[in-house]
Amino acid sequence: MAKISAVEKNKARRKLVGRYAAKRAALKAIIMDKSKPIEERFKAQLQLAALPRNSSKTRIRNRCEVTGRPRAYYRELGMSRIALRELGNRGLIPGLVKSSW
Question: Is the pLDDT of residue 98 over 90?
Answer without folding.
Answer: no
